Amino acid sequence: MTTVPLNTTRQMKQKNIMLVTSTLKSLISATKGDISNHTGLSLATCGTILNELCSKGEIIEESFDESRGGRPAKRYIYNSNYFSLLSIYVEGTNTSGIISSRLTSADNKTIEEHDETYSKFTVEALIAHIQKIADKHSNIKAIGLGLPGVVVSGNVLSCDITSLEGLAIAEQLSARFGIFVQVGNDMNYTAFGFYRNNCRNIDEPIAYIYMPPRHCAGCGIVISGKMLRGASQFAGEVSKLPFYDNFENSINIKSHHTLVIERLINIASSLIAIINPVTIAISGELVSQNCIEDLYSELLNRFDSKNIPHFVYRDSIKSDYHNGISEYTLDAYNNFRVFRI
């Protein structure tokens, strides 16, 4: 997410607007005094911002608090219908997979979800999926798209769905629908979604390992609340670790369970040695809670227990994936519309 240098009065006001709206969302309902106490902003500054946002319809003046003498305090709520956001991801190959989407409100509450299978992926099929939802919901202002590949500045450099490679997909969708579009890697979004829902405000590294049945393992990493993408957006491509090729050659003589455990041991060991995560979430169709227990036992042979992270089994990445897309895109869109960057 882009960080804006606060070097002008206008930018400071914009930062304060972001602070007031995020605080009101977390409080659900609040008076000007409540917001001032939580943000540290003056009553006058909060009043000016609340009045401006009320005039735009982003904030609703709900009611007056019961008076205890003097003028009663106005109470405000965030208008969840101010706009909506579409998180969407494509999972599979050129010949089979799903397009999964979730529509959320301006305060990130789920409105509806859709899953659509395909037998041959095309960009036109993705556009048609989005168009069906847009036809029903006219106030969609942002789209976040997750893909199983390397994405840089909205351009797909490599992808399990090879027909997407080389496409400026963010620019294409933005031009088609005339709204804000952000595109990113599946594991980065999934790790971010897990972090936001389970480890928010934790500065230590967290990682998310996904072991899909058809493709190589992937990993997303969040440190101090920010995705670790790497210099060329390649961070987390754990299938490029040197042990992977050796395991591929032995797949016929080892059970799937043994193969999965050995891969997990080596991936987790690499993460422990390099970023020393506090938590690692693990998911995949070939992974179970028993795998987590076996993994922990094996790691005790390599590391002191104090260096072994807390492992969390996730029976599906779907919720974490959509949460990550919607949370990250909502942050980016709010920055875009307030700071116009």
UniProtKB/TrEMBL annotation:
InterPro entries: ATPase_NBD, ROK, WH-like_DNA-bd_sf, WH_DNA-bd_sf. SUPFAM superfamilies: Actin-like ATPase domain, Winged helix' DNA-binding domain. Pfam families: ROK (PF00480). CDD domains: ASKHA_ATPase_ROK. Belongs to the ROK (NagC/XylR) family. This is Putative ROK-family transcriptional regulator.
